[in-house]
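Supplementary Note 2. Why include the ligand at all?

Several targets in our set were suspected to adopt different conformations when bound, so apo predictions alone were not considered sufficient. For every target with a known small-molecule partner we therefore ran a joint prediction. The input for manganese (II) ion is given below.
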Amino acid sequence: MAVSEFTQHDYDVIARDFADLKEAARKRCANQEELDVVQKAFDFANEAHKGVRRRSGEPYILHPIAVAKIVVSNIGLGYKSIAAALLHDVVEDTDYTVDDIRNLFGEKIASLVDGLTKIKTVLDNEDKAKQKSIQAENFKRILLTLNDDIRVVLIKLADRLHNCRTIEFMPEYKRDKILSETMFIFIPLAHRLGLYEVKSEMEDIWLRYKEPEAFNEITEKINRNITDKEKEIDEFIKPIKEALDRAGFSFEIKKRVKTPYSIWNKIVTKGVTFEQIYDLYAVRIIFDPKPETTETERDQCYHVFSIITGIYKYKSDRVRDWVKHPKNNGYEALHCTVMSHSGIWIEVQIRTKRMNDIAEKGIAAHWAYKKDGFIENDESEMDKWINKVKEIIVNPDVNALELLDIIHNDLTASEIFVFTPKGDQKRIEKGATALDFAYLIHTEIGNKAIAAKVNMKLVPLSYRLKTGDQVEIITAETEKPKREWLQFLKTRKARNEVIDYLKDERQDSIKVGKKMIEEQLAAIGMKLNDSTLQQLLDGYEIFEGKDELYFRVGIGVLKLNNLDQVIHRTAEKNKSWNFPWFRQKNKKEPRFVINDSSDKSHKYVIASCCNPIPGDSVVGFMSDDGTITVHKKTCDVANGIAAKHGDRIVMPQWEHDSQQSFLVRLSLKGFDRLGLINEISRYISFVLSVNMKGIYLNTDNGVFDGYIDLYVHDRDDLEKLIRKLTKTEGIQSVVRTDL
Ligand code: MN
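The joint prediction is reproduced in token form.
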């Protein structure tokens, strides 16, 4: 880190930023003593980082000040956390130790700082072979602090947010690593803890650097739309304001536009265009509940709802009642989508002041209200989740990399609501089956399940539940868990219960698994021997030995359908292996240059999860044998790899003169007319001379939607094609989506 004398300007900026922080802290501190601790932490950190600058050239201390500001303003934490945020990089970057902090600031602040200090070990070769990851170890360390104090995680999120804000000063590969970690784990975590402001700012920064063109285009469209629609929205609000005034509410109305990231996400996942997003605008009504009535806070939300829907027509399938059933991150509000008199759909969000604080600041606000007696149920969904995470992280069988995956999956899974036969509501992971539900109710019910009734109708145990389903499990005393169940069980809890049960039959499963592997290998002309066994262990990343491999195959957790690829991939490393079918598959390779160097010794593979084409922003991962797999920067899989194995990131550049073609998918929507499909495919093949792989269109009552898979040279090519198709009569939207 660069050390240089500070100028008068530097000192002025430091003084100004700290004054700003102190002002925010003053409102949050209970008394002068607390504020003095903040001052003392600043003085200490300021001295410790003196003369040191960040990459941006700014004095280093501006970073801890900014983190402390987020901690107090966006998350709402108190003076100990503010002090810890100011001190969070002192131990890592200077000669001071946690003991020094303890002597000066006491046990609590010292333990927060300790939790925030990164592990600084370098991985040795053995760790690499075992696929350990320093990123995962660091993250595990943070999660372990959930055990004593969740504030460490909250301050870490503030630190991460500020590092994202200043990411432009990082080299590209580092930027990608930081943004990927942010998307893989910090954003889901912020969401889970209800930190809406932190989460959405991180998402927008992620998009801005991962997919700058899309970010700029969407931002421009938002701005143009706001100017266009400003008057209409004001006209829309006017009658609501008057009616609420008449009803005697004290309230505030805020105008909201969807964030660029959430718009982008909708475009790529739903295959719609910007213009087709109907809930672009939201109006938020934040009111103070009237104390003098017998109406509860909730009743008053419904009262406001009835006032609004008395003025505007609402979309009945778009009413969301998170007042009665708060989201699992604590979010409470009543949402509805209504039609303005000028003909646009506008979402209206109804919240009390308390609900709004929790919606924006999350867990800290939740606890503050709980302490003040506003919230009665003492085990919220959030507390339950924290307890669940605690159970996972203290499990010694789970290594840091697995932990990262488990937490990621847990954080990003969405939930549905189902009912027991008695009408009790239960939350369960989306995609869960009737059997998952059985295990949710009780292990014994799961173990003895034989079938289920959903909404009074008999269904198999593998039936996928939908929101609102009423589920009854039929059991039989003689039943026991079956290996096949693992093929469809979704939830971790249920899977673990079955695996646990089957462990007793482990030896049988090992035999079955070994036999299955031998058969599969024989099918591709190979034998099970030390060499193929090692390839399988490496390929499937099993570090516990061959019995574990056989066992997993035997119980059906590990499927062998990509066995030939696993063997090929590892065979590539070893030149003495030579497979005729590998040669055949190995078509013309895409050409790249890495960072404009003339190094052509690497082999490149286009990732099949996201199918990037020339012109897309891409990231590559280097394997041990020098093969580089190229993904889109926004690809979920790439995010996961970069978050765990950031040291493998490389930045490939597309070559301009590539004559190769790449597969893409275009999703289409429009009005059906006679011969349209024919016309589209003829147009693409003959007029545009584009090679098509397939076309899949569904028509229903005069409208169609579907997709075309085709080969293009690059993004320019693709965009031209999209523009031309959009002009075809009957076609309403054409959007590139994932294959
Ligand atoms: Mn930091």
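Confidence is low (pLDDT under 50) at residues 569-591, 593-598. The pocket of manganese (II) ion is lined by residues 63, 88-89, 159 (CB under 6 Å). Comparable summaries for the other entries are listed in the accompanying table.
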